[in-house]
Predict the structure.
Amino acid sequence: MWGAAGPRRGFQRRAFGGVAASRHGGQRPWPFLPAVTPAGPKTARLLGIDPGLRFTGWGVIEVTGNRLRHIADGVLSTTNEDRVPERLRALHDGLVALFRAYEPDEAAVEETYVNRNGTATLKLGYARGVALLAPALAGIPVFEYGAMMVKQAVVGTGAASKDQVEAMVRRLLPGATLKRADAADALGVAICHAHHRASRLAWGAGTRMA
């Protein structure tokens, strides 16, 4: 479930208790990221979430300066046979297990889109609410990005197809398993957050220097 990289070991645990992960090799430069701040690159672990009541994709990456490294990805799933409250609890518990295993510094969640099926949109909203609340309760900063913003950050155009996003995710993050498209979307959200996070840090550094 956790992917090839495995959980972290040897780092300080958070209040909710988690094992820490080893950080070694496999980093890949990413030309979309702004230059690092004058203080030098600092490694951040980011969790991307693509919420859904049936399948919720997740992906964990590490960012050091302009380099990305794939840590793990996967999907949390629920069954239609269970009632919605039980499915939401399963989703919450699955996310908490991810926090404990990978100890992300920040989380990013894809925004909900509205389709013609009102019931499906409502259920997606339920899942997204859990995806936003669970990291917030764990003390993890949460950010939100729309689908077009994710595509723009990963591929370079907001009109990119899912196949184009998945292909670029594989290129930027060698070793990603991507068992379902939901996992690829979640890693795309994490990459998008890495881009915007780097921009904010670079802007903040420039403001302080000025």
The chain is about 40% helix and 20% strand.
